[in-house]
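batch job 7 of whatever, protein = Riboflavin kinase
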Amino acid sequence: MVPLPFACRGEVVRGFGRGSRQLGVPTANFSDQVVESFPSDIPTGVYYGWASVGNGDVHKMVLSIGWNPFYKNIKKSVETHIIHNFKEDFYGEILSVVIIGYIRSEKNFNSLEALISAIKEDIEVAKRQLVFAQHQGLLFLTLPSQCIHWGCARSREGTQQGDDAT
């Protein structure tokens, strides 16, 4: 497994259109190119961390990496649910994420209701965990574009990754 944190940045593209409509949980999707740039040894599953759209504020997030077995997807996706109410869509904007922790492995569900329940629980887990990691919220804003393993960016302009960014 790739050590965390892991940072990634890319354009928000249209996904399958299920997040808001079927699940009640809007997601921001990375392009296939960004998904393919993730290390192959990152396990599929649900993660938590921080996200920012464009030059906007940093918010808590939950991120899914995988094939969404309930929907029987044939292509891998990375979908981010930002725990914030946005006034409008932000397709075409740059989404920056820092994956800080792992919640659970990817799994199938017997019903849409069971999937929605698991997603809601994932969001609550993320909220609880991120209370303990708030000092890491802004660190990714100085990282280069695309995906990067945190260990590859130990120092940038003399600032160590553990320094407080606020």
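notes: Helices lie at 32-37, 112-130.
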